[in-house]
Protein backbone atom coordinates (compact mmCIF):
# COMPACT_ATOMS: atom_id res chain seq x y z
CA UNK A 1 0.00 0.00 0.00
CA UNK A 2 2.81 2.37 0.84
CA UNK A 3 4.30 1.67 -2.58
CA UNK A 4 1.28 3.07 -4.35
CA UNK A 5 0.88 6.15 -2.17
CA UNK A 6 3.87 8.43 -1.97
CA UNK A 7 4.21 12.10 -1.25
CA UNK A 8 4.77 14.06 -4.44
CA UNK A 9 4.51 17.53 -5.91
CA UNK A 10 2.11 18.97 -8.47
CA UNK A 11 4.60 19.88 -11.17
CA UNK A 12 4.39 17.01 -13.62
CA UNK A 13 2.17 17.29 -16.69
CA UNK A 14 -0.34 14.65 -15.61
CA UNK A 15 -1.05 16.26 -12.25
CA UNK A 16 -1.33 19.70 -13.84
CA UNK A 17 -3.95 18.34 -16.24
CA UNK A 18 -5.85 16.84 -13.29
CA UNK A 19 -5.77 20.17 -11.45
CA UNK A 20 -7.01 22.05 -14.51
CA UNK A 21 -9.89 19.60 -14.97
CA UNK A 22 -10.99 19.95 -11.35
CA UNK A 23 -10.50 23.73 -11.55
CA UNK A 24 -12.81 24.03 -14.55
CA UNK A 25 -15.48 21.96 -12.83
CA UNK A 26 -15.09 24.01 -9.64
CA UNK A 27 -15.56 27.34 -11.42
CA UNK A 28 -18.44 26.00 -13.51
CA UNK A 29 -20.18 24.57 -10.45
CA UNK A 30 -19.94 27.78 -8.46
CA UNK A 31 -21.05 29.95 -11.38
CA UNK A 32 -23.93 27.77 -12.59
CA UNK A 33 -25.37 26.97 -9.19
CA UNK A 34 -25.01 30.56 -8.00
CA UNK A 35 -27.23 31.63 -10.90
CA UNK A 36 -29.90 29.20 -9.73
CA UNK A 37 -29.78 30.60 -6.18
CA UNK A 38 -29.89 34.19 -7.44
CA UNK A 39 -32.92 33.45 -9.58
CA UNK A 40 -34.87 32.06 -6.63
CA UNK A 41 -33.86 35.05 -4.50
CA UNK A 42 -34.88 37.49 -7.23
CA UNK A 43 -38.13 35.87 -8.44
CA UNK A 44 -40.82 34.88 -5.95
CA UNK A 45 -42.80 33.03 -8.60
CA UNK A 46 -39.95 30.52 -8.95
CA UNK A 47 -40.20 29.43 -5.31
CA UNK A 48 -42.20 26.30 -6.01
CA UNK A 49 -41.78 22.91 -4.35
CA UNK A 50 -39.46 21.34 -6.96
CA UNK A 51 -37.48 24.57 -7.27
CA UNK A 52 -36.90 24.65 -3.51
CA UNK A 53 -35.35 21.19 -3.87
CA UNK A 54 -33.33 22.38 -6.86
CA UNK A 55 -32.09 25.35 -4.83
CA UNK A 56 -30.99 23.01 -2.06
CA UNK A 57 -29.11 20.95 -4.63
CA UNK A 58 -27.47 24.13 -5.89
CA UNK A 59 -26.35 25.10 -2.37
CA UNK A 60 -24.94 21.60 -1.86
CA UNK A 61 -23.00 21.83 -5.11
CA UNK A 62 -21.64 25.29 -4.28
CA UNK A 63 -20.40 24.18 -0.87
CA UNK A 64 -18.94 21.05 -2.43
CA UNK A 65 -17.08 23.12 -5.02
CA UNK A 66 -15.79 25.57 -2.40
CA UNK A 67 -14.53 22.94 0.03
CA UNK A 68 -14.16 19.41 -1.29
CA UNK A 69 -12.73 20.24 -4.70
CA UNK A 70 -9.82 22.35 -3.38
CA UNK A 71 -9.23 19.77 -0.66
CA UNK A 72 -9.17 17.01 -3.26
CA UNK A 73 -6.50 18.85 -5.22
CA UNK A 74 -4.41 19.08 -2.05
CA UNK A 75 -4.82 15.60 -0.53
CA UNK A 76 -5.35 13.46 -3.63
CA UNK A 77 -3.44 15.14 -6.48
CA UNK A 78 -0.68 17.16 -4.80
CA UNK A 79 -0.52 15.12 -1.57
CA UNK A 80 0.52 18.11 0.50
CA UNK A 81 2.55 16.97 3.53
CA UNK A 82 0.47 18.65 6.25
CA UNK A 83 -2.80 16.86 5.38
CA UNK A 84 -2.18 13.69 7.34
CA UNK A 85 -2.95 12.02 10.65
CA UNK A 86 -6.12 10.56 12.11
CA UNK A 87 -8.15 13.72 13.03
CA UNK A 88 -7.53 15.58 9.76
CA UNK A 89 -8.04 12.48 7.63
CA UNK A 90 -11.28 11.56 9.41
CA UNK A 91 -12.67 15.07 8.94
CA UNK A 92 -11.70 15.36 5.24
CA UNK A 93 -13.05 11.96 4.26
CA UNK A 94 -16.30 12.34 6.20
CA UNK A 95 -16.85 15.82 4.79
CA UNK A 96 -16.39 14.48 1.27
CA UNK A 97 -18.79 11.59 1.84
CA UNK A 98 -21.37 13.89 3.50
CA UNK A 99 -21.81 15.91 0.33
CA UNK A 100 -21.94 12.73 -1.70
CA UNK A 101 -24.97 11.55 0.30
CA UNK A 102 -26.52 15.02 0.29
CA UNK A 103 -26.56 14.93 -3.50
CA UNK A 104 -27.91 11.38 -3.69
CA UNK A 105 -30.69 11.92 -1.16
CA UNK A 106 -31.72 15.28 -2.62
CA UNK A 107 -32.00 13.80 -6.12
CA UNK A 108 -34.11 10.98 -4.71
CA UNK A 109 -36.51 13.45 -3.05
CA UNK A 110 -36.63 15.49 -6.26
CA UNK A 111 -37.59 12.36 -8.20
CA UNK A 112 -40.25 11.53 -5.61
CA UNK A 113 -41.71 15.02 -6.05
CA UNK A 114 -41.97 14.59 -9.83
CA UNK A 115 -43.45 11.12 -9.30
CA UNK A 116 -46.17 12.53 -7.06
CA UNK A 117 -46.88 15.44 -9.42
CA UNK A 118 -47.31 13.28 -12.52
CA UNK A 119 -48.61 9.96 -11.24
CA UNK A 120 -50.92 11.22 -8.47
CA UNK A 121 -51.81 14.56 -10.09
CA UNK A 122 -54.29 16.78 -8.29
CA UNK A 123 -54.13 14.81 -5.04
CA UNK A 124 -50.42 15.52 -4.74
CA UNK A 125 -50.77 19.15 -5.86
CA UNK A 126 -53.40 19.79 -3.20
CA UNK A 127 -51.14 18.23 -0.55
CA UNK A 128 -47.73 19.73 -1.31
CA UNK A 129 -46.70 23.14 0.03
CA UNK A 130 -43.53 25.19 0.08
CA UNK A 131 -43.24 24.65 3.84
CA UNK A 132 -43.32 20.89 3.31
CA UNK A 133 -40.58 21.29 0.71
CA UNK A 134 -38.46 23.11 3.29
CA UNK A 135 -39.08 20.27 5.74
CA UNK A 136 -37.94 17.85 3.03
CA UNK A 137 -34.73 19.87 2.63
CA UNK A 138 -34.10 19.67 6.38
CA UNK A 139 -34.77 15.94 6.25
CA UNK A 140 -32.21 15.52 3.46
CA UNK A 141 -29.50 17.22 5.51
CA UNK A 142 -30.33 15.30 8.69
CA UNK A 143 -30.49 11.95 6.91
CA UNK A 144 -27.20 12.56 5.11
CA UNK A 145 -25.48 13.61 8.35
CA UNK A 146 -26.81 10.60 10.29
CA UNK A 147 -25.85 8.17 7.53
CA UNK A 148 -22.38 9.67 7.08
CA UNK A 149 -21.31 10.07 10.68
CA UNK A 150 -23.03 6.88 11.75
CA UNK A 151 -20.99 5.07 9.12
CA UNK A 152 -17.70 6.73 10.07
CA UNK A 153 -18.26 6.14 13.76
CA UNK A 154 -16.96 2.67 12.89
CA UNK A 155 -13.67 4.24 11.84
CA UNK A 156 -12.89 6.22 14.97
CA UNK A 157 -10.54 3.52 16.22
CA UNK A 158 -8.60 3.23 12.95
CA UNK A 159 -5.16 4.67 13.55
CA UNK A 160 -2.26 4.37 11.12
CA UNK A 161 -0.21 7.19 12.59
CA UNK A 162 0.77 10.17 10.46
CA UNK A 163 -0.26 8.51 7.23
CA UNK A 164 -1.76 10.80 4.54
CA UNK A 165 -5.49 11.17 3.94
CA UNK A 166 -5.52 8.70 1.06
CA UNK A 167 -4.15 5.91 3.27
CA UNK A 168 -6.89 6.51 5.84
CA UNK A 169 -9.48 6.61 3.07
CA UNK A 170 -8.33 3.19 1.84
CA UNK A 171 -8.60 1.77 5.36
CA UNK A 172 -12.10 3.22 5.80
CA UNK A 173 -13.22 1.79 2.48
CA UNK A 174 -11.69 -1.60 3.20
CA UNK A 175 -13.05 -1.97 6.74
CA UNK A 176 -16.62 -0.69 6.44
CA UNK A 177 -17.06 1.73 3.55
CA UNK A 178 -18.19 -0.73 0.88
CA UNK A 179 -20.93 -2.07 3.15
CA UNK A 180 -22.53 1.39 3.24
CA UNK A 181 -21.53 3.00 -0.06
CA UNK A 182 -22.79 0.29 -2.41
CA UNK A 183 -26.35 0.09 -0.97
CA UNK A 184 -26.30 3.85 -0.40
CA UNK A 185 -25.95 4.33 -4.15
CA UNK A 186 -27.83 1.36 -5.55
CA UNK A 187 -30.97 1.72 -3.41
CA UNK A 188 -31.62 5.38 -4.39
CA UNK A 189 -30.79 4.55 -8.01
CA UNK A 190 -33.32 1.70 -7.95
CA UNK A 191 -35.96 4.00 -6.44
CA UNK A 192 -35.32 6.62 -9.09
CA UNK A 193 -35.42 4.02 -11.84
CA UNK A 194 -38.73 2.53 -10.66
CA UNK A 195 -40.31 5.95 -10.32
CA UNK A 196 -38.97 6.96 -13.73
CA UNK A 197 -40.64 3.93 -15.30
CA UNK A 198 -43.91 4.73 -13.49
CA UNK A 199 -43.74 8.33 -14.72
CA UNK A 200 -43.09 7.23 -18.29
CA UNK A 201 -45.99 4.75 -18.23
CA UNK A 202 -48.34 7.38 -16.80
CA UNK A 203 -47.43 9.95 -19.42
CA UNK A 204 -47.57 7.38 -22.22
CA UNK A 205 -51.03 6.16 -21.14
CA UNK A 206 -52.46 9.64 -20.82
CA UNK A 207 -51.02 10.73 -24.15
CA UNK A 208 -52.71 7.84 -25.93
CA UNK A 209 -56.08 8.46 -24.28
CA UNK A 210 -56.28 12.19 -24.90
CA UNK A 211 -57.24 13.52 -28.30
CA UNK A 212 -54.85 16.02 -29.77
CA UNK A 213 -57.80 18.38 -30.04
CA UNK A 214 -58.39 18.20 -26.30
CA UNK A 215 -57.87 21.45 -24.42
CA UNK A 216 -55.34 19.86 -22.06
CA UNK A 217 -53.10 18.55 -24.81
CA UNK A 218 -50.54 21.25 -24.05
CA UNK A 219 -50.58 20.23 -20.40
CA UNK A 220 -49.67 16.68 -21.33
CA UNK A 221 -46.69 18.03 -23.26
CA UNK A 222 -45.51 19.64 -20.02
CA UNK A 223 -45.77 16.25 -18.33
CA UNK A 224 -43.75 14.71 -21.14
CA UNK A 225 -41.02 17.33 -20.70
CA UNK A 226 -40.96 16.61 -16.98
CA UNK A 227 -40.69 12.88 -17.66
CA UNK A 228 -37.74 13.54 -19.96
CA UNK A 229 -36.08 15.57 -17.21
CA UNK A 230 -36.52 12.62 -14.84
CA UNK A 231 -34.96 10.38 -17.48
CA UNK A 232 -31.96 12.70 -17.66
CA UNK A 233 -31.82 12.63 -13.86
CA UNK A 234 -31.56 8.85 -13.78
CA UNK A 235 -28.98 8.73 -16.60
CA UNK A 236 -26.86 11.48 -15.02
CA UNK A 237 -27.04 9.80 -11.63
CA UNK A 238 -25.81 6.54 -13.15
CA UNK A 239 -23.02 8.13 -15.19
CA UNK A 240 -21.80 10.46 -12.44
CA UNK A 241 -22.78 8.52 -9.34
CA UNK A 242 -23.18 4.78 -9.69
CA UNK A 243 -20.56 4.33 -12.43
CA UNK A 244 -17.80 6.21 -10.52
CA UNK A 245 -18.62 4.14 -7.43
CA UNK A 246 -18.11 0.95 -9.45
CA UNK A 247 -14.97 2.40 -11.04
CA UNK A 248 -13.51 3.09 -7.59
CA UNK A 249 -13.81 -0.61 -6.77
CA UNK A 250 -12.31 -1.70 -10.10
CA UNK A 251 -9.39 0.75 -10.20
CA UNK A 252 -7.03 -0.67 -7.57
CA UNK A 253 -4.12 1.65 -8.40
CA UNK A 254 -4.66 4.93 -6.57
CA UNK A 255 -3.62 7.98 -8.54
CA UNK A 256 -4.14 6.28 -11.90
CA UNK A 257 -6.35 7.82 -14.60
CA UNK A 258 -9.28 5.42 -14.03
CA UNK A 259 -9.19 6.16 -10.30
CA UNK A 260 -9.00 9.91 -10.90
CA UNK A 261 -11.82 9.65 -13.46
CA UNK A 262 -14.09 8.24 -10.77
CA UNK A 263 -13.46 11.32 -8.58
CA UNK A 264 -13.78 13.66 -11.56
CA UNK A 265 -17.14 12.30 -12.73
CA UNK A 266 -18.54 12.65 -9.23
CA UNK A 267 -17.53 16.32 -9.13
CA UNK A 268 -18.67 16.86 -12.71
CA UNK A 269 -22.20 16.13 -11.54
CA UNK A 270 -22.11 19.38 -9.56
CA UNK A 271 -21.50 21.39 -12.72
CA UNK A 272 -24.08 19.45 -14.75
CA UNK A 273 -26.88 19.78 -12.19
CA UNK A 274 -27.91 23.38 -13.09
CA UNK A 275 -28.27 22.36 -16.73
CA UNK A 276 -30.07 19.07 -16.18
CA UNK A 277 -32.37 19.91 -13.27
CA UNK A 278 -33.01 23.62 -13.75
CA UNK A 279 -32.01 25.23 -17.01
CA UNK A 280 -33.79 22.46 -18.91
CA UNK A 281 -37.14 24.06 -17.99
CA UNK A 282 -38.63 27.01 -19.97
CA UNK A 283 -39.47 28.99 -16.84
CA UNK A 284 -35.84 29.12 -15.72
CA UNK A 285 -34.70 30.15 -19.17
CA UNK A 286 -37.21 33.00 -19.22
CA UNK A 287 -36.17 33.98 -15.70
CA UNK A 288 -32.52 34.16 -16.73
CA UNK A 289 -33.34 36.48 -19.64
CA UNK A 290 -35.50 38.66 -17.39
CA UNK A 291 -32.77 38.72 -14.72
CA UNK A 292 -30.25 39.97 -17.30
CA UNK A 293 -32.63 42.74 -18.35
CA UNK A 294 -33.88 43.69 -14.87
CA UNK A 295 -31.60 42.23 -12.16
CA UNK A 296 -32.82 44.46 -9.32
CA UNK A 297 -36.43 45.13 -10.31
CA UNK A 298 -39.72 43.63 -9.15
CA UNK A 299 -40.93 42.08 -12.38
CA UNK A 300 -41.61 38.35 -12.37
CA UNK A 301 -41.56 35.71 -15.13
CA UNK A 302 -44.92 35.79 -16.97
CA UNK A 303 -46.01 38.58 -14.64
CA UNK A 304 -47.11 40.85 -17.47
CA UNK A 305 -48.14 38.16 -19.88
CA UNK A 306 -51.86 37.99 -20.57
CA UNK A 307 -51.40 34.67 -22.31
CA UNK A 308 -49.85 33.17 -19.21
CA UNK A 309 -52.69 34.40 -17.00
CA UNK A 310 -55.16 32.89 -19.40
CA UNK A 311 -53.20 29.65 -19.51
CA UNK A 312 -52.93 29.48 -15.75
CA UNK A 313 -56.65 30.05 -15.40
CA UNK A 314 -57.32 27.38 -17.96
CA UNK A 315 -55.10 24.82 -16.24
CA UNK A 316 -57.08 25.17 -13.03
CA UNK A 317 -60.52 24.88 -14.61
CA UNK A 318 -60.55 23.21 -18.00
CA UNK A 319 -60.66 19.43 -18.33
CA UNK A 320 -61.52 16.86 -20.95
CA UNK A 321 -64.70 14.91 -20.42
CA UNK A 322 -62.80 11.63 -20.48
CA UNK A 323 -60.05 12.81 -18.13
CA UNK A 324 -61.88 15.17 -15.81
CA UNK A 325 -60.14 14.14 -12.62
CA UNK A 326 -56.86 12.76 -13.94
CA UNK A 327 -55.04 15.32 -16.13
CA UNK A 328 -53.64 18.47 -14.59
CA UNK A 329 -50.74 20.61 -15.59
CA UNK A 330 -47.46 20.01 -13.75
CA UNK A 331 -45.25 23.06 -13.25
CA UNK A 332 -41.57 22.93 -12.47
TrEMBL record:
Top-level lineage group: Eukaryota
Molecular function terms, GO-annotated: G protein-coupled receptor activity
PROSITE patterns (UniProt xref): G_PROTEIN_RECEP_F1_1 (PS00237), G_PROTEIN_RECEP_F1_2 (PS50262)
Keywords: Cell membrane, G-protein coupled receptor, Glycoprotein, Membrane, Receptor, Transducer, Transmembrane, Transmembrane helix
Cellular compartment(s): Cell membrane
Bilayer topology term: Multi-pass membrane protein
A single GO cellular-component term on record: plasma membrane
Domain G-protein coupled receptors family 1 profile, first and last residues per copy: 32-277
Membrane-traversing stretches: 20-41, 53-76, 88-112, 133-156, 176-200, 230-251, 257-279
Keyword Transcription regulation: no
Protein family: Belongs to the G-protein coupled receptor 1 family.
Protein name in the entry: G-protein coupled receptors family 1 profile domain-containing protein
Amino acid sequence: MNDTIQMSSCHDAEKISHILMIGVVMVGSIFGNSIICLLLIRFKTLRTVPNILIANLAVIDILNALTNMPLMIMWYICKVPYLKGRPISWFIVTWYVLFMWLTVFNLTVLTMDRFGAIVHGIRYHSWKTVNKAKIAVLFVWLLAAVYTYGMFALGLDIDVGDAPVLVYRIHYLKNFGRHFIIPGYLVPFTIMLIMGVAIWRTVHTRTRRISRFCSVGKHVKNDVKTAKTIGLTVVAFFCMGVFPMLLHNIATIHGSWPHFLAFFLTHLNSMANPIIYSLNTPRFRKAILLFLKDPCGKSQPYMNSKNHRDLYSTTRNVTCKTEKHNIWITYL
